[in-house]
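W.,

You were right to be curious about this one. When I first looked at the sequence I had no strong expectations either way, so I just let the prediction run and decided to look at it fresh. Below is the sequence, 359 residues in total, followed by the output.
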Amino acid sequence: MSASKAYLAVSPERCNGCGRCVRACPRSAIRVGGGYVYVDSSACDGCFACVETCDTGAIVRRAPVSSPVAVGSGPTVIVGSRAEAKALRQAAQVSARERTKATKVAEKRQRADRVKSEHVEAVSADGAATFELTDAAIVVAVMLGAFALKEFVLASEPFALIPDAGRSLARAGVLGVYYSLQAFVLVALARRRGMTVTRAFGLRGLDRTLGERLATAGWTLALLVATRLFATAWGAFAQAVGWEPPARGEITALFGSGGAGLLLTVVLVVVVGPVIEELAFRGVVMRAAGARFGMWPAILGSAGLFALFHLTPWLLVPTFALGTALGWLAWTRRSLAPSIVMHAAYNGIVVAAAFWLAS
């Protein structure tokens, strides 16, 4: 389009591709495509029908200047030939493909970041600490080391020389040291982040209404009943196929079947044990894995370690089921408090049954 016939100032970046200008032009002088607006200079007679129908400002009257390029609020382009239009169209297509590819990459990264953020939020409710896989590895290593030390001491010859009357207290002391080593590491992880144990491990519940509290209590009770029924069914199945369970009396043999033995068992097996194990397996291991791998890999992974840690092949399956239920409860309720209560109740039922059968 020559300067004398440059009737229109075109801003392709404002064009939305509606095509109203194309339909309005009585001389079919306008073509609109991806990233360009083509005006046939030989056909345009300056009727400005296109200007009147365009409501985006992509085509406007050109100011009476000698340059074919009008000066506006943004860059403007006058296409004066089909060759120029073709070149612009090809450049626009290449640019569009590059933008599309870049957009897809950015969206993929945003989705990954959003998923990770959601996972972290799900396991880090109420300002709880987020742990890393190295933290989980440290906790597991300390637990295994403490377990090996406990077993070594209990199987040692000096321990066997302790009189029967004092052996229960000695065993309680060994278990106390065993749990203290784990508690020390867990507290250190919390202090390292400048938090209290309650806050770092999400022990404060998020239930703000009566309905939420009732829902948490209902889920805790339902999962407790379900896991106990599953353990009972598993025991019946294992015995049916000839796999005998561990000998009865193992729990009562820890500290004796008397009143003092029951008290020590309740303190260490029903109270201390569940608290330490939930802080370790659900508070650190599951939280660290959840921030990296997501909900179910974290729940199942921590449940697997929880089952293996107990080193009882006969109880491997029901313990894994228990760990899965505890992990799901801690994750969905966004607090370790319900899983600790359920774990303690589960152990309490086992202890009560053992002492009742021994009486």
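Here's what jumped out at me. The CA atoms of residues 223 and 325 lie 6 Å apart. And, maybe more interesting for your project: The two ends are 106 Å apart (CA to CA).

Coffee later to discuss?

I.
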